[in-house]
Amino acid sequence: MASQWERLKWLPSDRDARFLVDGFNFATPACATYFLTHFHSDHYTGLTRSFCYGTVYASEVTARLLVHDFGLPERCVRALPMGQAVRVEGCEVTLLDANHCPGAAMLLVRVVADAAGRPLPPPHATILHTGDMRWADWMASQIPRGVRVGTLYLDTTYAQPRYTFPPQGEVVGALAGWVARALAVEPATLLVVGAYHIGKERLFLGLARALRLRVWCSGAKRRVLALLALAPEDEAVLTDDPGAAQIHVVAMGLRPAALEARYLLPAPGAPAAAPGAPALGQEPSGARASPDNMVEADPMAPGPVQPPAASPAGNEEEGGEAGQEDSAGGSVVEVVELCEGEGEGEQSLAAA
Known about the structure:
19% helix; single chain; alpha/beta; Metallo-beta-lactamase, Chain A; elongated
């Protein structure tokens, strides 16, 4: 969960408070500039459609979600491209790919002027605010050569050293192997994947590409996916016909009883269906992640950071929609939780 400590929300610092990052619970008429790192509810908590305090800066994907999905007035939102510095409140702010959900960004902030707008001599104070992120070595190359980060804000759910996650590619590959074995036993097996409002796209789209399967989700979910700027190869695996897809994407919270009611039991008043293909439920989660239940977990050695991140208080509960799935008769239900660290779980940050 994102922290709700006000002093962590103000940048460049709580002593030089010029704008808020993921800090809508602390919105005030004295602040006209707000940043949202990504479109997960524990980071935009406090933001409502009636927000009137100023401008919300966000990545292009997050800005589209704020306007077309959340309903925030377009005049209140400014979309920023990744990797390009913009001047805001005496700071040069650059959005960097956070390797989290679609549109998620870290903020690289260089303080080039004081609060009154007077230029400051170099070297300029430089801050990196992570939001939720999943560290990978390639991410360090996003920071311009010669720029040294002086202060690191880790406002990410699983920042503590005891949380370690395998690379996402390995997780998708492991799950693809598991599903392939199930398909070898019963080619008509249906895979039901729990997903957040946004998040887990890499998982179910990666499975579809690896196994050459089609993906179905509700109309509401399709409208959300249309805002995420998916790659053409990902768009190609989506279908509006649930009968043509062996991967169904539903809201998080899969449990065997719910799967049975939705997929295996006849509708009220309908005749009982004959036993058919199994339905496999897969709910990716990092909530109970530890080196003992990881898939090939590899502990990392975190370096010194400041200030310390808050401990996760529990699962992130992202908004979502269950949709109305057609029945796909079957006889076996299995729910598997695979800790793959995307959505609400992030890999610990290694010292760079």
